[in-house]
Amino acid sequence: MNRSLTIRSLIIIFPCNAFLIAFYFLLFSSFAKGTQQWVVPSNLYQYLIHFLRNSETGYIPVLIGTGVGFTILSWYLVSLLGGRLIQNGQRKGTAEITPKVSKKEKKDSLSDNLSAKYLQNASLQTLVVLQRKGRLVDFLQENLSEYDDAQIGAAVRSIHSGCKETLSKYIDLKPIFKDEEGKEVTVDQGFDSRAIQLTGNVKGNPPFKGILRHRGWRAVKVQIPQLTSQEEGNNVLAPAEIEIL
């Protein structure tokens, strides 16, 4: 931008100054010759005639040098002033654009933080309801090596009932395969690799025949537990209980 302005200013100023110098020279020459018709020759008139004659040889370099110097000076001033105007315009444009970009980035960052916080709270709330109804966290944190199978079996029945009831309330699960586990099934071409995992001797292209080892599960409806104002931002899954004697 600065280089383009410099070249343009030089192209414009140089012809303008050359035109003005030629105009002044011709005007002065015409004026001096015109005075010969009504002014009596005198020392002043003779001096003017002498100046015009010498200008054709001696004064022309002086005039050209003056014009070139004036052109360079004008070009420098225009370039300096134009460069400052461009810099001020760029600073003003940057100042106007920067707040908008910063505001948008701040809004996007805030939205991402809120989404991450909401997902974290929802995950914790799911554990809260599973603990409340089925005491799942207590069961998973318990050291089962201290109990025999009969004791574990009795506890698991209660945990299974409570967790199943809670899970069915918020998540509707459907099996991917309706066949009984252990039976032979066929995997057709174009199957969903996210829903069906192939194990064993997998060779060639589908269709495949194999034994169903696990039916798989798919969530067809998910309802995240709603948070209350007191539970939002709270990471307590189960409060400690103290009986006062």
Task: Explain the overall architecture.
The chain has 245 residues and is mainly alpha-helical. The chain folds into two domains: 107 residues, no CATH class; 88 residues, no CATH class. It is 62% helix and 8% strand. The protein has a two-stranded antiparallel ribbon. A two-stranded antiparallel ribbon has the order 2-3. Helix 1 packs antiparallel against helix 2 and helix 2 packs across helix 4. The longest helix has 92 residues.
Judged by helices, strands and strand pairing, the structural class is mainly alpha
Most strands sheet: 2 strands, antiparallel
Taking all Cα atoms into account, the compactness measure Rg is 48 Å
Number of discrete helical segments = 4
The low-pLDDT segments are 37-41
How much beta, percentage-wise?
Answer: 5-15%
Choose one word for the global shape.
Answer: elongated
Give the strand line-up of the largest sheet.
1-4
Number of domains: 2
End-to-end separation in angstroms reads 85 Å
Number of distinct beta strands: 4
Query: What series of H and E elements makes up the topology?
Result: HHHHEEEE
Question: Roughly how much helix do the residues carry, as a percent range?
Answer: 55-70%
